[in-house]
Design a protein that fits this description.
The chain has a single domain, classed as q2cbj1_9rhob like domain (Jelly Rolls). 21% of the residues lie in helices and 22% in strands. It binds 2-oxoglutaric acid.
Amino acid sequence: MLTPNQISDFRQNGFVVIDTAIDAQALKPLCREFDAWVEESRAHSFPFGQMLDGRPRFDLESGHCAERPGLRRIAAPEEISDHYLCLLKKGPLIDAVVSLIGNDVRFHHAKLNSKLPGAATTVKWHQDFTFDPHSNDDCITTMLFLDDVTSENGAPRMVPGSHIGPLYSLRQNGVFTGAIDDSIAQECEKSAEECTGKAGSLCLMHTRTLHGSSANQSAFPRTLYIANLTSADAVPLSTNAVPSIHSGMIAHGREPGKIRSIEYEMEMPEVPEGASFFNQQQANTANV
Ligand SMILES: O=C(O)CCC(=O)C(=O)O
């Protein structure tokens, strides 16, 4: 459970980092599993595996090769690993989300985002909510640090207070780019705060919070386990781009048997054709 100060930081800024939310012992099997997937990726030249909608589960950045793996995303790891599934059923991650949005919590999707040493992939400025709109915005992105996350290895950067601001378009000139307009991105750069921490730390982000991250410029990996959880009465309004056999599962509490809605307007998101939104972002704008 979060402390009153952590909850008030989250409400004010739209994010908070909880130091060592998970101890080294609990982290070990998660890291071991991830390392095995990196090893497996060495035998592949193109994104591989399959998620529920037939798109590749394992996303490789360009330049990936056996000698220097560029595995950058594993979609829905809970489908192929009980260790990751357990994180969604009980423990510190779920308890933290309950502290923020109440007892009844539903799982939407999860992924591992990796920046191996030398990885060039950046995450351009965006809000998760405009990828995954729901009937209300009690929606949390949890980011568990599998490695120490530093300024040098591509820590997530967030704009404090942006969760209570506008919802920005992810289109430029009518094309879905998965990133906000460059002029707004430049403003984000001025006020962004980095979310760094030791392995085992947990960053909790409101899904309306503007965020992005830079390339890994260090010799150390940066691996984030990212799970999106919502209030159980928030109904998803678009196609899940990281679908899972567990999507929609009640992670805590019970089925509320009702829909709660707030008023807002936004453009429809698009599911990427390739393995992940990195393809949408790279194909288009320059921001970050
Ligand atoms: O990997 C990161 O730095 C953040 C990832 C992110 O924002 C996302 O996958 O939506």
